[in-house]
Design a protein that fits this description.
Layout: H1 5-15, H2 24-48, H3 50-75, H4 80-135, H5 146-162, H6 166-186, H7 188-196, H8 204-242, H9 248-258, H10 264-280, H11 282-312, H12 316-357, H13 362-396
Helix pairs in contact: 3-4, 3-6, 3-8, 3-12, 4-10, 5-12, 8-9, 8-10, 8-11, 8-12, 9-10, 10-11, 11-12
């Protein structure tokens, strides 16, 4: 039967696609645009849920610090809920004991400090005027505005409280962190089982090898920071007492309590100590300034690298940069969680990227070269033996 050319051409037109397929460059551009859109949405959600995310990270850090104790006691047939309860009660009793022991002296010194603070500030301003008069034409080099410093202090304080909705929100966040940390430790095995259900089977071994190092870095930060804060407090109490600076016990306690964020506690204590010392004696104030510089050098070169840096395997400069970035993005809480986050990021980068592109160590290269040379020598020997046997077989035949 003859085919109508008009119908044939019509069918051909209907079968022709209306849109031409995208080129590889267009597909790549569309994929990048989708990635950027997803990243923007994730960043927006992270900013809106900042408080929840920081509380979650803090809970993970506390859980990682308590897990070794829970595992050790579990081997002695002590249940994990009992371990967590004992740890929380022991810490509460420790703070209660310290409060009972130190509160009378700290209260007395604190009341006197706050009562004398306006006079101390006024005396400091008067001393500053004398410095300007002495500087003469170069006074611009040391010009300082008390109003600017007050505004800066208020902004810093406001940024610290901004992550919560007041004291009530801070208390709720603290309870949430403690609850989550205990829950993570008690139900760790079940949680890991649920997480591994979503991971392909061929990656289970690889993921399992990452758990312990990540746990060590999170928990190590908590343990290391407690040691650093204690060392800073002891240093200031001892040195300020030797210099006979008033309120040495209060200033040392402030340094230890605030130094949960590296460098912050010692800086705050030094500001108060310098103010108090200058009102006792200008020379004593200069000595306290020198003491603060020495303490910063000791903290940066010994306390943080040894007590904290080794726990999270980070250089002291990296610790400082991470803390500043975290404080800028999320206040004091951001400074606390920034260091373990950066430490984990460095570790994952080394595991999944650096080890893949880095050349093997020299010893490994030598072993590989030696093995290859030995294999080549064996192959040449076997090839020579095969050739000799073939020649001998040909002669026999």
């Amino acid at each position: 039967m003859p085919v109508n050319p008009v119908l044939s051409s019509a069918k051909t037109v209907r079968l022709t696609p209306r849109f031409s397929p995208m080129s590889n460059s267009q597909v790549q551009a569309l994929r990048i645009a989708c990635y950027l859109m997803v990243a923007a949405i994730v960043l927006w959600l992270a900013h809106e849920l900042k408080t929840v995310i920081i509380s979650f990270i803090l809970a993970l850090m506390l859980a990682a610090a308590m897990t070794p104790v829970a595992e050790a006691w579990e081997r002695k047939r002590i249940a994990r809920p009992v371990t967590i309860t004992v740890i929380y009660v022991a810490v509460a009793l420790l703070y209660l004991f310290l409060g009972i022991a130190l509160f009378p002296a700290i209260r007395e010194q604190g009341k006197t400090l706050m009562a004398n603070l306006p006079n101390d500030i006024e005396n400091l301003a008067r001393w500053y005027d004398h410095v300007l008069a002495f500087a003469g034409d170069k006074a611009a080099l040391v010009t300082f505005s008390p109003a600017d410093s007050k505004e800066f202090a208020m902004k810093a304080f406001g940024r610290t409280i901004d992550m919560t909705t007041g004291i009530f929100g801070l208390v709720l966040n603290s309870v949430l962190v403690l609850f989550l940390a205990g829950y993570f430790v008690i139900n760790a095995k079940n949680l890991w089982k649920e997480i591994f259900r979503w991971i392909p089977g061929d990656m289970h071994e690889r993921m399992s090898s990452l758990i312990e190092p990540l746990q060590d870095r999170l928990g190590g930060y908590v343990r290391g920071q407690i040691l650093v804060a204690s060392a800073v407090a002891i240093f200031f109490v001892a040195c300020l007492s030797l210099l006979h600076v008033n309120y040495a016990l209060t200033l040392g306690a402030v340094a230890g309590l605030l130094n949960i964020v590296p460098y912050i506690g010692s800086f705050a204590a030094a500001c108060f100590a310098i103010l108090v010392a200058f009102n006792q004696n200008p020379l004593l104030g200069l000595l306290v300034m020198i003491l603060f510089a020495v303490e910063q050098w000791i903290e940066s070169n010994f306390m943080v690298p040894i007590l904290l840096g080794r726990q999270v395997e980070m250089h002291a400069l990296a610790v400082l940069v991470a803390m500043i970035v975290g404080a800028t993005l999320a206040g004091i809480a951001g400074a606390i969680v920034a260091i373990p986050i950066v430490s984990i990021a460095i570790y994952l980068g080394e595991e999944f990227y650096v080890k893949k592109i880095a050349p093997p160590p020299l010893g490994v290269v030598g072993m590989v070269v030696g093995d290859n040379a030995e294999k080549q020598e064996k192959n040449e020997t076997s090839a020579g033996a095969t050739e000799v046997s073939e020649i001998a077989g040909a002669q026999v035949s």
